[in-house]
Model the fold of this input.
Amino acid sequence: MKLIKDAMNRGQLIYFSQGKSGIQSCIPIKTPIRNYGAIWMESPDDQTNNPATNPNDMQALVNQAAIALERSMLLAESRRQAIEIKAAYDTLEETYDQTLASLTSALDARDRETEGHSIRVSNLAVKLGEALKFSSDQLKVLERGSLLHDIGKIGISDTILHKPGKLNDEEWKLMKLHPDIGAKIVEGIPFLEDTIPLIRHHQERWNGTGYPSGLKGEDIPILARLFSVIDAFDALTSNRPYRQKISTEEALIYLREQSGILFDPNIVDAFEKLIVEDPQVIAVSD
Done:
């Protein structure tokens, strides 16, 4: 054991002959990072100077074994750390989403007529995104962007937001600023940067009559095009200060009439198909 410990401490092969009784070797198994142990080997002494087992050959094999062990342990450690990082990221992401939901509820509560709107459109937008086979990343951006689409209304006066009748030209001009205000609010927040196109362009229209940029057709970001259909549907089927809600069937008729005018025809078709095939998605979004 003393020889083994000496070999491990020194990191060097110990090799000696005991005459005709044989050769004893102790080879440490180590890398610059770890000391794993040692191999003790006894072999008969070959008087022809051609020993059956050459310690130098064994050293090469031991070096390879040490490297393999090191790689295996580093891989296991990397996987463990990756799992821990993923768990921490998931917890952080969940906290972000809970914070967004709370913020959205606070924003919606500012206007009793639209309370719950952001949660409803977010749930329904994700359902439509799933039907259109959007990626998981797109669905997450859609969910968050839908929750925050009206965050820019923080910068709009309550007298405008709560006005019972239609807005005049000056008030409407101010209201049209809310998409850009919202986009500026989330700029610089890394996990929300991907939502900026939806927030900034959710009021654009297929024929270019929307705001703030007057984009038209496929120049409008796809998530904003999808959301505008959901946003319009929820607005039509909810009571507002200036009008009463209409039925699901009437809202679908309106969307169909405005398909190719205000809304992306393909998205309108997909949304109508979703509602017809699974009417419960509306109840779930409520």
Remarks:
- The longest helix spans residues 55-109.
